[in-house]
């Protein structure tokens, strides 16, 4: 584990990740959600008190509990494998053999370096090798992996890998275009910039297939 504070700050400010998987401890689920909420509530109280906030004020005294519940139940709910969506697939009885694209899937995630929002769109595609998946399941897979402290590159790869596993094919692609509030609201404070990441598997590595996919989503970016 790296302990150099200056180097760790550089990793966070430059949005690098040292792990291709979300760095969870082995004991991550040894306590219940309710116990986690109580522990986080006390931590948030301490942060607000340290900042000088008056926690007796009606407007803010419920904030520690709200934040704790939000962390456990909502924005980081995708850390819990019990919440992983069941990726039901079906036989491709109609023999559809072309590309299927689900575009403009809303992404709400959280940057693991500053715990600030990542907001954007995911575009996902696959070519069936005999199995198809329900359209809403693609959205749910995106949501599940987004609901955790993330880096965008990892999120993009996880979506592709999950669909490849569910569909039994390498022919899956994902592009995410998102704004990072750790860039937009702090640091460089560039409110216009967004980050584009991609992962292309199987037939999508072919330049013509890749271009067809990018044409579908109308993303004028060179990969």
From TrEMBL:
It is an enzyme of class 3 (hydrolase). Pathway: Cofactor biosynthesis; 7,8-dihydroneopterin triphosphate biosynthesis; 7,8-dihydroneopterin triphosphate from GTP: step 1/1. Keywords: GTP-binding, Hydrolase, Metal-binding, Nucleotide-binding, One-carbon metabolism, Zinc. The keyword Zinc applies. It comes from the Bacteria. Signal peptide: none annotated. GO terms for molecular function: GTP binding; GTP cyclohydrolase I activity; zinc ion binding. Pfam families: GTP_cyclohydroI. Its EC number is 3.5.4.16. GO terms for cellular component: cytoplasm. InterPro entries: GTP-CH-I_C/QueF (IPR043133), GTP-CH-I_N (IPR043134), GTP_CycHdrlase_I (IPR001474), GTP_CycHdrlase_I_CS (IPR018234), GTP_CycHdrlase_I_dom (IPR020602). Residues 40-217 form the GTP cyclohydrolase I domain. Zn(2+) binds at residues 111, 114, 182. GO terms for biological process: one-carbon metabolic process; tetrahydrobiopterin biosynthetic process; tetrahydrofolate biosynthetic process. It catalyses: GTP + H2O = 7,8-dihydroneopterin 3'-triphosphate + formate + H(+). Belongs to the GTP cyclohydrolase I family. Homopolymer. This is GTP cyclohydrolase 1. It comes from Flavobacterium nitrogenifigens. The lineage of its organism: Bacteria, Pseudomonadati, Bacteroidota, Flavobacteriia, Flavobacteriales.
